[in-house]
């Protein structure tokens, strides 16, 4: 699945032992993916490889993080891996939707790659439909987290200190009082599947998600990436953290082209 | 969500289809149905130059030109292909909700088809005209089955396709753009001169040309 980039000189495949894998779920508003774009763009991360997979709709374009003429012609595809060894961070970006019936195969292949590359933990950025919140969730922060039991032991305390809110479970059968509580993440894409699979495979995974709706999701991406930063401290957050994230050049024209002059 | 008129609609999401149904465990009947549908959607690549039977050698190919979509296929028909210099060497048989192709090589321009031609004077030059729509779940299969039959060392691939001008993202309005116009994407291994400007961000290519 993972194909390392050919950096020439017969260099060995990158080593992700002990790294944190940061990745998005393709979810409502594409907030996870936008947040990942901010991380990759801000740290000018180097592409170290890609996923050769039949689970995502194919797409290709020129470098979405281009800053100048010189670096704008590198091809970019639907699932690519970037890394900063100094921060022990490896980032997966997913740029297209899943093909029907391919969620499960992708999750299985991804988690087995996580295990074989010996990543220490996975942080999944996601989102969930805001309109599906219950009365209590409508108040307070729209941000939630989830931890697999293995990671709960390691970082649960830290997240409590940060006053973070765990994602609530909902009744399996709404309206019936003494029913089981289950995890329900509407609009979250592969979030729930990846999380439950990680729990059963003993993989350390954290899910960070925001309640949102479709629309201009750039502010949601900033909120989510700042939330991530509260914990991982990727950038210094004493100064206004939002101003330190660099917007990639590919975010231009998200809402259409210029207007025809004849309109006026 | 509720609309102004009071009816409740499911809002389409840029994130794609809701996956909740996927998370449900499959019953044996579901699995059987899914397998049957997958079999029906399988692609067959039939090479006419292969005698069949014993070990099939990969096709030696130096240049492979692929025209995807009716416009690109028509371009090849009008300007490149003729029955004197080119011979049919293969056909793709597939079915999806949008089209069906058959294994016949005798096609009309209005049919949906996917044919391979070889230049008689240089049999390492291959051409593909794909006017049928290859669905999302079939694109990877098409790729693997077609390229799987080829020896890929030293192979140069050129892909021709078209996109609507309305999909082109640019600062100005597309109404004032002089169209049609050409844009290109190339891998870093492609060292030759490209005949037109490169595709700027944030434009992308998707589906079979991207695959």
Automatic annotation (TrEMBL), chain A:
Record's keyword annotation contains Nucleus: yes
Biological-process GO terms, alphabetical: proteasome assembly
SUPFAM superfamilies: Cgl1923-like (SSF159659)
Keyword Endoplasmic reticulum listed: no
One annotated Gene Ontology cellular component of this protein: cytosol
Major location category of this protein: nucleus
One Pfam family recorded for the sequence: PAC2
Highest taxon of the lineage: Eukaryota
InterPro entries (UniProt xref): Proteasome_assmbl_chaperone_2, Proteasome_assmbl_chp_2_euk, PSMG2_sf
Cellular localization per UniProt: Nucleus
Record keywords: Chaperone, Nucleus, Phosphoprotein
Quaternary data: Forms a heterodimer with PSMG1. The PSMG1-PSMG2 heterodimer interacts directly with the PSMA5 and PSMA7 proteasome alpha subunits.
Family the UniProt entry places it in: Belongs to the PSMG2 family.
Function: Chaperone protein which promotes assembly of the 20S proteasome as part of a heterodimer with PSMG1. The PSMG1-PSMG2 heterodimer binds to the PSMA5 and PSMA7 proteasome subunits, promotes assembly of the proteasome alpha subunits into the heteroheptameric alpha ring and prevents alpha ring dimerization.
Protein's UniProt name: Proteasome assembly chaperone 2
Gene: Psmg2
From TrEMBL, chain B:
GO cellular component entries: endoplasmic reticulum
The keyword Magnesium belongs to this UniProt entry's keyword annotation: no
GO biological process: proteasome core complex assembly
GO MF annotations in UniProt: proteasome binding
Keywords: Chaperone
Pfam families with a match to the protein in the record: PAC1 (PF16094)
Family: Belongs to the PSMG1 family.
Official protein name in the record: Proteasome assembly chaperone 1
Upper lineage: Eukaryota, Metazoa, Chordata, Craniata, Vertebrata
């Amino acid at each position: 699945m993972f194909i390392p980039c050919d950096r020439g000189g017969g260099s060995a495949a990158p080593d992700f032992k002990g790294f944190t894998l940061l990745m998005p779920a393709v979810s409502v508003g594409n907030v996870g993916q936008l947040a990942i774009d901010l991380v990759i763009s801000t740290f000018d991360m180097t592409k170290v490889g890609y996923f050769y997979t039949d689970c995502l709709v194919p797409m290709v374009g020129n470098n979405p993080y281009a800053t100048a003429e010189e670096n704008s012609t590198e091809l970019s595809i639907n699932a690519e891996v970037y890394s900063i060894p100094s921060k022990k961070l490896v980032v997966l970006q997913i740029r297209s939707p899943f093909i029907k019936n391919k969620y499960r195969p992708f999750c299985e292949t991804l988690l087995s790659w996580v295990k074989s590359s010996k990543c220490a933990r996975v942080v999944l950025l996601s989102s969930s439909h805001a309109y599906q919140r219950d009365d209590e969730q409508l108040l307070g922060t729209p941000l939630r987290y989830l931890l697999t039991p293995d990671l709960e032991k390691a970082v649960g305390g830290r997240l409590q200190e940060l006053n973070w809110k765990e994602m609530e479970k909902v009744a399996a059968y709404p309206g019936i009082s003494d029913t089981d509580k289950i995890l329900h993440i509407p609009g979250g894409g592969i979030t729930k599947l990846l999380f439950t699979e990680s729990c059963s495979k003993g993989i350390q995974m954290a899910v960070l998600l925001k309640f949102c709706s479709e629309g201009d999701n750039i502010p949601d991406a900033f909120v989510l990436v700042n939330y991530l930063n509260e914990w991982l401290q990727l950038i210094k957050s004493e100064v206004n953290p939002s101003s330190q994230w660099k917007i990639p050049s590919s975010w231009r024209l998200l809402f259409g082209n210029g207007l025809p002059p004849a309109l006026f | 969500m509720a609309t102004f008129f009071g009816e409740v609609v499911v809002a389409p999401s840029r994130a794609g289809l809701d996956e909740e149904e996927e998370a449900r465990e499959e019953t044996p009947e579901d699995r059987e149905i899914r397998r049957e549908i997958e079999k029906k959607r399988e692609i067959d690549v039939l090479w006419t130059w292969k005698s069949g039977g014993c070990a099939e050698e990969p096709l030696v190919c130096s240049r492979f030109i692929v025209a995807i979509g009716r416009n690109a296929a028509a371009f090849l028909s009008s300007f490149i292909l003729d029955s004197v210099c080119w011979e049919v060497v293969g056909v793709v048989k597939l079915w999806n909700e949008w089209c069906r192709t058959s294994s016949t090589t005798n096609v009309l321009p209005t049919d949906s088809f996917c044919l391979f031609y070889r230049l008689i004077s240089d049999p390492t030059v291959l051409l593909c005209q794909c006017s049928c729509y290859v669905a999302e779940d079939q694109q990877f299969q098409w790729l693997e089955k077609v390229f799987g039959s080829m020896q890929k060392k030293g192979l140069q691939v050129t892909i021709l396709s078209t996109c609507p001008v309305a999909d082109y993202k640019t600062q100005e309005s597309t109404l004032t753009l002089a169209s049609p116009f050409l844009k290109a994407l190339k891998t870093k291994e492609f060292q030759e001169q490209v005949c037109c400007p490169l595709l700027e961000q944030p434009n992308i290519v998707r589906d079979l040309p991207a695959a």
